[in-house]
Design goal:
Number of strands: 15
Radius of gyration: 30 Å
Helix content: 40-55%
Number of helices: 21
Structural class: alpha/beta
Mean pLDDT: 90
Low-confidence stretches: none
Strand order of the largest sheet: 7-6-5-11-12
Length: 572
């Protein structure tokens, strides 16, 4: 309905401005008046034209009303205040959306992706393959997956991608940690350095490697070759564990992209050579790190990228003292590879501790991409704040499995996939999230996922009971919806009408948490309706209309929870 009203106003504006070829048609934005007596919708399209048409906004609004051809659902429209157009709809006209929802089912609110729709590369999680995922990784995983669902539902082609950081010093530490455990399992007394990775999973990997490879043969190998072999075996084991953890929370990727493959193929060095040829690389030293005493700082010459020419606050090293590429160099090569793969848009979901990294990556892409394409090649970076895990308000910090943190899998196993996914989406990503394990298991209104799912289960129970009592809806086109006149019924209808627009707004802002907020509000409206009204009444017309209403509510709850990757149970 809203779209039809907007289109009617746009056509009227085009007609009104046909003698003013230089005047741009202002965007039509309909809003809901705060006071119901002001109508169902209001538009402020006249005021922006006052200077162009040299008329008062009130006169322009009157001329618009004289030119507009409204859909049949409009009962009246008038000019109010300084030039607003207030629109009133016929009684229960908006309630026809209930029939649309039932007919479209899971497609309600979705936009089909055209062949030439935007191709989005969405990279998220990308946890180092050095151990299991912790709850902080889990929040980023859920945010990224829900955003991918949201973007796909609003007409985009989306590729989910995981960047495996399988190169660099942390892999050497991983290999060394496993080797020390292998030696310990073979009877040596080992003193573990603080840098070694703790946790049972290291012992498990060491045990698996020993089962597949002869210890004496490994012992006789060149140290670099031995650590390279163990490192790769450990990466494979950890990635299998990470994939299993992701599967437990319902997350799957289209592509796992290896950082090491960029080095092996020579693409990182090729990128550095290109930047050198472009004259944006030089040899120099960096100022001391912020907050460090200058007397303690020893300047070292590096191969530096002039990222300050492209918006960064300091130039960045591309190679270490030994000539090997930095992580930053590989990350530039990775983002440039995404561009070469033809994506129209790149979105990265990172932990909040990567905030200082955003500007330098964006600066690098500006240097690499032609100006006319640079804006499309700029990654949109979503920074996800940490999770504070508690149990009845007491912080939970340690894990036997990981040794230093609580793993995502432990949380999922304790409270369930739905509780984890929904609770992770109840706040903006910029805000830290307090997640209480005991609260997430409660079956009451304090648990947001239970509150929403219970609305769906309650509707299913009502419909089962009505069926048992012999209530028959018949053809939905024949249902008279004009009887849905109560405040609670009208509020539900308005909320259901807003669902498609709510998805588009959330996608435009890359804020998938808004879908969870919508679902909670819809559930609250339903519970309010349920406590004040019976669905099955002595009035058959009213009963059938209310059954259609709650069926539509259940369908939209299902659709919204589907975006979030959460189930909609019929029984609880």
């Amino acid at each position: 309905m809203k779209q039809a009203l907007e289109q009617a106003l746009e056509q009227a504006l085009i007609k009104l401005l046909q003698d003013h070829p230089d005047a741009a048609v202002p965007p039509v934005v309909l809003t809901r008046p705060k006071e119901k007596e002001h109508g169902d919708y209001a538009a402020n399209v006249a005021m922006p034209l006052a200077r162009v048409l040299k008329q008062s906004p009130q006169q322009i609004a009157a001329n618009i009303l004289a030119a507009v051809v409204w859909p049949d659902a409009v009962e009246a429209a008038d000019v109010a205040g300084p030039g607003f157009i207030n629109i009133r709809l016929k009684k229960a006209s908006e309630a026809n959306v209930l029939k649309t929802i039932i007919q479209q089912a899971e497609e309600y609110g979705r936009v089909a992706a055209a062949a030439d729709a935007t191709k989005v590369n969405l990279e998220f999680v990308s946890a180092n393959p050095t151990g299991p995922m912790h709850v902080g990784h889990g929040r980023g995983a859920v945010v990224g997956d829900a955003l991918a669902n949201l973007l796909a539902a609003t007409g985009n082609h989306v590729q989910r991608e995981y960047y495996i950081n399988d190169a660099g010093a942390q892999i050497g530490v991983l290999a060394g940690s496993v080797w020390l455990r292998m030696r310990e399992l073979n009877g040596e007394q080992i003193e573990f350095p603080e840098s070694a990775y703790p946790g049972e999973y290291i012992v498990q990997i060491a045990t698996e490697v020993l089962a597949a490879h002869d210890y004496k043969t490994l012992l006789a190998m060149d140290e670099d070759a031995r650590l390279a072999l163990i490192g790769q075996l450990a990466i494979d084991a950890n990635m299998a564990m990470i994939r299993d953890d992701l599967n437990a929370i319902g997350i799957h990727f289209d592509l796992y992209f290896s950082e090491q493959s960029l080095h092996n193929s020579g693409r990182v060095n090729e990128l550095i050579e290109r930047l050198q040829a472009d004259g944006v690389v030089y040899r120099g030293t960096l100022p001391p790190p912020k907050g460090k005493e200058v007397s303690d700082y020893q300047p070292v010459e590096h191969l530096l990228f002039r990222t300050t020419d492209f918006g960064d606050d300091v130039d960045r090293p591309l190679a270490k003292q030994d000539g090997t590429a930095t992580y930053f160099a590989a990350d530039i090569a990775y983002h440039y590879d995404k561009h070469l793969r033809g994506f129209d848009r790149m979105i990265d979901v990172w932990g909040a501790d990567h905030g200082g990294y955003v500007t330098r990556v964006q600066a690098a892409m500006k240097a690499l991409i032609e100006p006319e394409a640079a804006s499309a090649a700029q990654p949109d970076v979503i920074l996800v704040q940490m999770v504070n895990l508690t149990r009845d308000g007491v912080p939970v910090k340690m894990s036997k499995r990981a040794g230093t943190f609580v793993t995502l899998r432990e949380v999922v196993d304790e409270v369930g996939r739905d509780a984890v996914r929904f609770n992770f989406m109840t706040r903006r990503v910029e805000s830290q999230l307090d997640f209480d394990l005991e609260a997430a298991k409660k079956q009451n209104d304090e648990n947001p996922v239970y509150y929403v799912q219970y609305a769906h289960a309650r509707i299913a129970a009502i419909l089962r009971k009505a069926s048992d009592e012999g209530v028959v809806v018949g053809e939905i086109d024949d249902v008279d919806l004009s009887v849905l006149t109560s405040h609670e019924e009208q509020r539900l209808v308005a909320h259901l009408l807003a669902y498609p627009e709510a998805l588009l707004r959330a996608a435009d802002r890359l804020e998938a948490y808004r879908v969870a907020t919508y679902a909670m509000r819809l559930a609250a409206d339903f519970h309010s309706f349920y406590h004040k009204h019976r669905v099955v009444t002595d009035d058959n017309n009213l009963t059938v209309a209310r059954m259609l209403l709650i069926r539509a509510v259940a369908q939209v709850i299902t659709n919204a929870l589907g975006i979030l990757g959460v189930s909609a149970p019929d029984r609880m």
